[in-house]
Every structure is written in structure tokens, then in C-alpha cells.
Amino acid sequence: MSSQPGSLPNTPWVDVQRGLVSRDIFVSDDIYRLEMLRIFDRNWIFLAHETEIAKPGDFVSRTMGQAPVVVVRDTDGRVHAFLNSCRHRGARICRADSGNARHFVCPYHGWTYERSGRLMTTTFDRHLPQNFDFSQFGLAHVPRLETHKGLIFGSWNTDVGPLSDYLGDISWYIDPFLSRSPGSMEVLAPPHRWRAKSNWKVGALNFVGDSQHILTTHIGPLTLDPVRAARAGFATAAENSFQVVTDQGHGCTLTYLAPGLPDDAYQTHPRDIEPLYRQTLNGDQLKLLDRLRVIVGTIFPNLSFIETQVGPGQKAVIIRQWQPVSGTEMEVLSWVLAEKEASQEYKDTVLRNGFHNFGAAGVFEQDDLELWASATFASNNAIAKQFPYSFHTALPYIDKPEKDHRWPGRAFKPADTEVAQLEFMRQWDRCMRSNQ
Amino acid sequence: MSDLKVRAVDDALFIEIQRFLYLEAGLLDRREYAGWLALLAQDIRYRVSAAVARDAGVEPVSYAIIDEGLTGLKSRIDQISNPRLTRAENPPSMTRRIVSNIEAYHSQKQDEFDVVSYLLAYRSRPSIPEGGFYVAMRHDLLRRGASGWQLLSRSVHLDQTMIFDGALSTLL
Asked: B52 vs chain A: nearest CA distance in angstroms?
């Protein structure tokens, strides 16, 4: 590819036909600003897990795109989310990451709001004009708020469709990880947080379906982990492994254990909790969990999830948010979940082992982050931008979903192609080109 | 406070403890991991936590980012010390651990000591050459035995609500 000296080549952002994706969209601050408008202010964005704000008054501070948001449970138990900025002069009404509030008092001039966001007093009410309407000056609500199996999502777009439509077929695949016992799942600790010198989409793509990086990037933990190392062939995916893509750009990869492993290898889930799954999941979803080594996926745009074995009969369910900071930086938030019914000892073990692998000091994470930062560094220059990224291993498969797939969504085999990644980029491109 | 005064170690012991902390910081900086592991008790509990920003007067909350015993630590070290098994530490980070503000007290047990120290650890690596700092208060439990000093437990409290330069791939 050639270009005039001093000018950028006019390469498309996403060229699905040729399997090429521009490097610019992984480094540019201009693209990042456009993403805020066209992706983060329009779609459903993950905010929090319900169990993080279990009691009335509990709140957490989060970010939707660039907007700081408080998610709070009110006195009646209802969940609200609003812009974390006073309607008077804009100071943050909550400057803590989490806590419990009777009401929210702006520290600047004292405007005071109920847990529901309603303005109670400005403290200078006596000077207000007679026609001042308190109901119009409550905290700016995130206008759409819905919950799916404990996950609270919000949207600034009043016209966005229902969350269930937005999630579409991916819910069938995530429900067995978000709610598989009568008590459902709970978050075990505050989220791990770390900054990465990398674009948020790199994380989203890594989780949506990137089986190709596992043996190279993660050769360390794959070689050393006692569970894996003890079982020859553990890293070999069974032939029934597959990727799933949904119409909304969500995707996941399900990797099943290869046949011929020691019998106890197939006891992947906790022995005493597993019977509870039968009370909650249907037959096909139970089948989905059977002999599943790992499921990893992304809900467009920036929520990912992984369930992986962290010990014999121990499965850590991890949810993960890739929060954009700029074109070349993100903040990652990562939660570990377990079944509410599990023993405290099991929860402690799964939390510890979960973040040993995937967390702010995770043995998988540390190598990912180094390589993502290096890709960002090496791509962020005009010369590099002449050479788009390759997604070619999607091309022989992307138009050939499995015909006999009996479960929701489109399935693709084998599991280690880039189909789900290219479909994620197709959805990104669709959103970015839409002026609506 | 009066209790702490009574429990404070004398100068000779203090210097021994200071020497131990400098020694192990140097071993980690030089990536002499076998030497470092030899200073750990078999049943060591090693913990690193970061803080959650909470309003003043509210009970502080932290979250562990590493919480493990000798097996977990050995596995981390097997990863970062083997060039074929690590991306984050090949080429290796350059680190410098500055240890200061040491306080040392006799614990309830004979020959065991509660030791507080401040840690300023600088780390630079090829992907982030400008480097960054981890700043922490450490609470150690040390034992003086026949074969020298040993680390029984370490709790590293980072004065940060997040890790700033990717995932932590070194020990503090």
C-alpha cells in the first residue's frame, strides 16, 4: 500500500470483505471522541452488579463512556443511576468509589438530593424565584435502566430498544453463568481496577473470540498451572468447541475438554453446587456446561465475561469492563462472582484463584497487557497506519455458520478463527457510520 | 502507644531487621529469586491489596490483588524468571525498591517481630519506558531462627485505588 508523503492513506475503518481493519481506530483520539457519541451514548452500557448495592442507600461510582455516573439503591429498593454532577454548578455529588448515603449533599453549595435523585433543597430556597420547579432540577437520570440476571445496564438513548432485545441470543449463553442456582450469583469483592495503555476495543476483541493468542501470549501460566500441567492435552480443544455470534455484535467462544483426559478432569464445576443448576437451567443449558473448559465472550460494546477452571471443581466467573480513557488508554474493571449458595470457603478460594489468573496482578493479565501496550505503541504512527490489521482467518468461515446448530445465535467452527472478532468490528463500524 | 514503646526492639535488633529488609529488596531488584524464596517461611501468607476510595469516617475497604502462599508465589516466580514463559518480564522490568520508615516491635511470640515499612518501588519496562511507581505500606511478620531471618507473612497495602501501568508482574 502506498500513500503520498505527509498524508494518511484513505483506508476504510473496517473492510469485512478483505478481512482488514484500520490501525487508526485503535489509537486515534478523534475516533475515540466519535465512539463516545455513536457507541457509548447510544447503546446499553453495563453499570454494576445488583449485589454491589444490596442495601438501601448503597452506591457505586461508575463511568458510561466519559460520563461519571452514580448507581444507587433507593429507600424503596429501586435502583437509580444518574450523572455524578450537581445540577447547580456541576461538582461531583459522590467522590467515593462506593459507600452508603442517606441522601446526596453537594459539597460545593449544598444542593441536597434524595437517594432517588430528587432535589430536596438548594439550601438557599428562600432566594429562588417563585416559579422554580424542584422536580426539574433533580440529578440527571440515566433515562433508561434495566437489569438482566443481576447485571444493571443503562442507556442515555431514550429510544434504545429493550435490554432483552439488545442482548438477543447472547443471553442464552450468559445466563448459565449469571444465574444458575435459585440464589443466583453474587460479586465477591470490589472490582479490581487497572489502567492499560491500550484501546478499549483490544480487550473487547481479546475476549469475544481470540483463541489464537492463548498458546503464545499465555505460554507461562499454561505451562505452570498445576491443574493444566497435570493433564496432558488439557489445552487441546475438543472438536465440539465453537464460536457464537449474535446479530448485535456480541460473541463468545466455548472450548470443551478433549476426550481422553483423567475422569476427574470432567468434574469442572463444584460438586456440591452443581445439583442446584438443575433447578434453574434447562436441559440444553445444562448440556452447554457439561465438559466446558472455558467460555469467554463480549457483550457489545465493552462488557466481557469468562468462566474458567481455577482448581479441581472450582470455576471462577469473571465479568470485565473495558472503560475507554482515550484513544490509547483504558481502565479495566474486573469482578469475580460465585453462586450465593456456595460456602464461604469456596467463595474465598474462587476469588483468590480467580484473580491469581485474571486480575490486576493476574498471571494471564500481565502478559496480555504488555503485548497490548506494545501493539498500541507500535501502531500509533503515520507509517504504521498504512498497514491495516489482519483478520484473515475469519474469511474462509464468516459466511458459513454451522447449519445444524440447535442453540441460539450463529455458531462457527472451528473455535480458533477470527469470525467473532470481525463480526464485532462489523457492528462497531455499523454504529460509527450511523448518524441517527 | 505505650504498648508499642514497650514492644519496640532495641537498636541492635532494629539494625538486623533493617538489614534483612534491604537484603530482600536487593534480591528482588536483582531478580535473584532463588535467594528471595529461601527467606520465606514454608507457610508464608503473601498479600497485596489496593484501596477503594471511601468517604472520610467510613470504614475503609480494600481489595486483594494477590493473596497466596508459597505455591502461588513460586508459580509467579517460575513464570517471570523464565524468559520463555513471560512476556511482561522479557525484557525484564527495571525495578528499584526504596524501603524506609521502618518500625519494628516484639510480637507476642518469642523471636517473632511485627515490622512496618514504607515501600516506594519504581518500575520501568520497554513498553512503558517512562516508568511508574508503586507506593505502599508493608506489614511483615519476621522470625529470627537458628538459620537466620525468615518472612512469615507480608501484607502490602498500596496507596492506590488502581494499578496504573497494566497488571502487576513483580513482587513488592
From this structure: 6
